[in-house]
Amino acid sequence: MKIALCGKGGVGKSTLAVLLSEALLAKGYEVLAIDADPSPHLARLFGFEEAEKVIPIAEMRDLLAERSQKDGPFYCLNPKVDDLPERFMLRRGPLRLMVLGAIREAGVGCACPEQTVLRRLLALLLLRAKEAVIIDMEAGVEHFGRGTVVGVDFLLVVVQPYRGSIETTKRIKVLADQLGLKNVFLVGNTLRPGDQAFLERELGGKLLAAFPFDEALWQTEREGSPLSQVASPLHEIARDLISKLEGLKGRET
Questions:
Q1: What angle do CA 20, 21, 27 make, to 5 degrees?
Q2: What is the pTM of this model?
Q3: What's the chain's average pLDDT?
Q4: Over the stretch 12-60, which tens digit does the pLDDT of each residue have?
């Protein structure tokens, strides 16, 4: 399974990416987590002690130029990426983490090269039955313009009950439809009583999963501790969500 999480910035995509990864690990999967956010947080949330040593692929300018084969304003749509997973990752048992990152210096252009590499990587990865990929996408809708999410099995749109998040979610639904994506699902996060009904009314569809606000998890993240260290009912919700996706994937095959 290849699962991507997208949505407006600050809605909790990284937190849910970790919860879903932990749920997959608990079910016996080998997990490759890809942090594709320009401000990466997954290494810290997973509790990798060497998080600060991770060099994002996006900061390797020579590699990006070589793989994207830039010629003027154009980029190769089929760069070589088959060796990237092993060369640029952290490992902890069945969990692997790759940080894509993004170029963040002024005047160096758009993020097209690294997104081209990610898109090709997602299309290339052929997974066995108990392997999964979780992608924490960059905030907003830019990756839809680059078609990065085309290679995923499920696109989870994370939404919170406020207008900015709702409007971004509506835009994502339109763009996903234009790309012909079929398995696009809404996931509510940090919900309080009444929020799920409000979101479903505003968005005109059911949430595939609803994660309530959890004080303990919020405090753990604030302290910078690994999310797996806190006993939270959100872990069970994440496992239920993975079971639903497994069922949907099974019906496709």
A1: 90
A2: 0.85
A3: 83
A4: 999 999 999 999 999 999 999 988 876 778 888 999 877 677 777 666 6
Token pair, residue 28, equals: 């016996």
Q: State the Cα–Cα distance between residues 129 and 126, nearest whole angstrom.
A: 10
Tokens, residue 24:
């997959």
Residue in the structure block whose two tokens are 């890809």? 34
The closest of 48, 5, 1, 49 to 27, measured between CA atoms, is 1
What are the tens digits of pLDDT across the range 11-25?
A: 999 999 999 999 999
Instruction: Please choose, from the candidates 4, 68, 64, the residue with its C-alpha nearest in 3D space to the C-alpha of residue 36.
Output: 4
Question: Does 207 have pLDDT greater than 70?
Answer: yes
CA distance 139 to 228: 24
Three-class SS string for the chain? CEEEEECCCCCCHHHHHHHHHHHHHHCCCEEEEEECCCCCCHHHHHCCCCHHHCCCHHHCHHHHHHHHCCECCECCCCCCCCCHHHHCCEEECCEEEEECCCCCCCCCCCCHHHHHHHHHHHHHCCCCCCEEEEEECCCCCHHHHCCHHHHCCEEEEEECCCHHHHHHHHHHHHHHHHCCCCCEEEEEEEECCCHHHHHHHHHCCCEEEEEECCHHHHHHHHHCCCHHHCCCHHHHHHHHHHHHHHHHHHHHC
Domains by residue range for the chain, with CATH: 2-252 (3.40.50.300)
How far apart (Å, rounded) are the C-alpha atoms in residues 145 and 139? 13
Residue 96 in contact with residue 88, Cβ under 8 Å? no
